[in-house]
Amino acid sequence: MSSNDEHEHEHEHDHDHGHKEDGSPLNYADDSRHDYDEASHYPLITEAIRQLLIEKEIVKTGDVQERLDFMDSRGIELGAEIVVKAWTDPDYKARLLKDGTAAVAELDIPMADAELVVVENTNDVHNLIVCTLCSCYPRTILGLPPDWYKSKNYRSRAVNEPRAVLREFGTNLPDGVAVRVHDSNADMRYLVLPARPVGSEKMNEAELTELITRDNLVGATIPSLA
Amino acid sequence: MSGNHDIGGLQAGPINTDEGDPEPWQKMLTAVYGALVSRGHGNVDQLRRHLEALSKEQYELPYYERWVEAMCNLMEEKGLLTREEIANRMTALKAEMENTG
Amino acid sequence: MNDASLPEPSDPLYKIGDIVRIKVAHPPGHRRTPDYIKGKTGTIERYCGAFINPEERAYGFDGIPKKHLYRVRFDQSQIWGHYDGPEEDTLDLEIYEHWLEGKSL
User: CB distance B9–A18 less than 8 Å?
Assistant: First the structure.
């Protein structure tokens, strides 16, 4: 197949992209969790792998424990810290938007092998993050991504139906706000900097921290005072 | 579609927005994988390649289940563990559980 | 991966504001350019840096020389046949330089 013969299937099939030949949409298996017991296949295989790798000294128990501890240490705290600092310190916010990696390093938050891009929600733009190809996510800041972020339905629809997806999260945007989707498909990782809620002007840092949820930082929802 | 994973823009169903804590085995899988990478046995690009190479049926599995399959293929490729060794250990574990259960 | 001690490739080809088109290519194996964006035209939003090539690293190569990575912004209405939203809605992706074609205005 030479490149001379190649024509642009994408343009021809634009309107049909995502359908089977009979016109019905693709049907994904349910991505939601199942209730497993320890003897079920996947928990069992995981335990078998863990034991074998340790017995063969391919990994050490300490390596595994370190990672479990790391996961347990990551909740909303670091993300909220970053947001509250940006809300209360305009110079920090400017640095954060210019170079996310360097700005979070100021707070001793490492980015490991990726670079951080922080995108700001404003009166004109609402940002939404997805990784269509897998589930890239700022794990060193936010920990494990939620199931919905990793689900095939989200990965497929966040790019071409972001407004419908947002409505499923209960997020209805005012008129005049554009939606900007970021497909985290290579070496960048993203945090959405939510807009500071109207009415929060007199709140202290602890009160501001309470307003922020993980879903705000992915752009699925907007923080409010309610 | 270049692969089963390349799904941006396809029609799909509603999103289950429920928050669920990861199950213990899912966290353990994540930790074991991280340990493997930290010891130099593979990296995220190699894992992704294996995820992308899963069959259509395997790609229908949920997230962590796919990860297990891809990891098994990666470890076999690297000569670390075979599927047979893993299966044997699973049999032994199951017998142990049945004896003490 | 971004190890600053590794040699850099030659200078980036594109700068912010350049109009670029994503190559229509269908190579086998591990790539980070999704199908849905191939053949589409967008604007360079920022230069992200040079990174170890994941397309090579996925197979056990060292991924050197590094590749330049850019964020490219697209109008949603240009990507999808029936996009349900205003003209102002956009989609940003990260695209490696070898997937880009410069488009003259």
Answer: yes
Structure tokens at A160: 């071409």
- Catalytic site residue A200? no
Q: What is the DSSP string of A46-94?
A: HHHHHHHHHHTTSS-HHHHHHHHHHHHH-SSHHHHHHHHHHHH-HHHHH
Burial class (CB in 10 A: 0-12, 13-18, 19+), C91: buried
Here the tokens at position A202 are 């007199």
Nearest residue on chain A to C48, judged by CA atoms? A188
What is the value of pTM for the model shown?
Answer: 0.90
What residue type is assigned to position A163 of the chain?
A: R
B46 touches C: beta carbon within 8 Å:
yes
**Residues of C whose CB is below 8 A from A161:** 84
- CA–CA separation, A152 and B8 (whole Å): 9
Which domain does A48 fall in, by range? 41-71
- Residue range B24-100 forms a domain whose CATH class is mainly alpha
pLDDT digit string, tens, across residues A3-33: 333 333 333 333 334 444 444 444 444 455 5
Domain ranges of chain B: 24-100
Q: Are A163 and A211 in the same domain?
A: yes
Cβ contacts (< 8 Å) between B45 and chain C: which residues?
30, 54, 57-58, 63
Per the residue annotation, which of A40, A73, A134, A224 is the catalytic one? A134
Residue A185, both tokens: 């498909």
pLDDT in tens, chain C (105 residues): 667 777 667 899 999 999 999 999 999 999 999 999 999 999 999 999 999 999 999 999 999 999 999 999 999 999 998 999 999 999 999 999 999 998 543
CB atoms within 10 A of CB A125: 17
